[in-house]
Amino acid sequence: xxxxxxxxxxxxxxxxxxxxxxxxxxxDVVLLNDDVETPTRMIGRKLVPILxxxxxxxxxxxxxxxxxxxxxxxxxxxxxxxxxxSQWISDEARAYTLMLPRFAAAPLPEFATTAARLYFIxxxxxxxxxxxxxxxxSAALCASTSRALARLxxxxxxxxxxxxxxxxxxxxxxxxxxxLTIVAGLEWPAPVWAYCRHxxxxxxxxxxxNMAA
Length: 213
Ligand SMILES: N[C@@H](CCC(=O)N[C@@H](CS)C(=O)NCC(=O)O)C(=O)O
Prior knowledge:
The protein is α+β, with helices and mostly antiparallel strands and about 210 residues long. It has two domains: about 1-70, Glutaredoxin (3-Layer(aba) Sandwich), CATH 3.40.30; about 85-210, Glutathione S-transferase Yfyf (Class Pi), Chain A, domain 2 (Up-down Bundle). It contains ten helices and four strands. The longest helix is centred in the C-terminal third of the chain and has 16 residues, at about 140-155. The two termini are about 35 Å apart. Glutathione binds near residues 6, 9, 47, 49 and 61.
């Protein structure tokens, strides 16, 4: 199996998590961010992640998660979800304003060419406005995101699973938090950081704190 991804992409992290948790062998293929042709040929649009399995292509991160989790008849995402976790993640969507300009400046393989990096910048500035303005707002956004992380701390039941047993909440939460580790200057409560460290270890997906800015 091959999984086509961008390293920074939280949706791709969702798909990568299930391979890591289940130790299912897969080859990650990082596409250049301006490669429109490859994903379009596979699924008809420029969107990752894409799973290639037996000559077929599957898009949609959570479809890939469900497919891989069910494949051996021994699912690992067996725990219940909690509405407060999905609510916390959707309330914190604004922190993408912190993440996107930092992804754009990072030494990530999807930006191996200048054209690929510029494609990303143009694409995301269309969504959130100029990165300069976003970066200028960093202090205020970091403060509110740190307060949100403090609230999350009380919701984490175990470092190995936010609700005590692995569930879809872990897919969404770790995908989000892993992206956030590229932001320097956040205050990470110990339980939230322990969760990130544990999930990184369990999934084999490194955090981005080594390139935090
Ligand atoms: N619903 C899709 C969303 C995937 C998605 O939005 N992927 C982004 C990357 S984070 C993408 O490929 N966007 C097109 C682009 O960056 O040009 C899923 O869950 O897989």
